[in-house]
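Intended use. Records like the one below are meant for learning the mapping from a protein sequence to its folded structure. Do not use them to infer anything beyond what is encoded.
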Amino acid sequence: MIHTPMNFNPWHHVEIGEDSPKIVNAIIEISQGSKTKYELDKKTGMLRLDRVLFSSVFYPANYGFIPKTLGDDHDPLDIVVISQCQIVPMCMVRARVIGVMRMIDHGEGDDKIIAVAEDDMSLSNIFDIDQLSPHFNSELQHFFEEYKSLEKKTVLVEQFQNAEIARQSVVHAIANYDKVYAPKV
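Structure written out for the chain above:
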């Protein structure tokens, strides 16, 4: 039986990864193909059911967050991890950052880092977003534009950016996290 300390929180206690911002550790919250929206409870570190999606859509890729980051929406930086398989929630995955989808949700920036599972050899030749099928990008954009529509909420997907811009987003989110959560000396 595995025991973890009661105060363990993957957002604060899992390292971002030695090769950051090129390859980061991602904590999966939602498996590819799911209609269930799980979210990290920031206080406890547990995964909680946020809701079942109102619309007839499914997550087109595995979805989670990057530990020790803080996005402009005051949450851990979101990450979409492409793999040929579904990855179970709360699994830590080494993810190669290949792009970012810029999004506005509730009037705040809500970047979605796009990555491929580093240890999925079927994706070993993908290093930048322009190497993905344009259809996948359209599908991802459509999902995020539609998944809240029956809740009467709108999101705006602005644009997809390359790996270099995505890595800058990761560095920015690390700096935000450090400003808020780093121990004061």
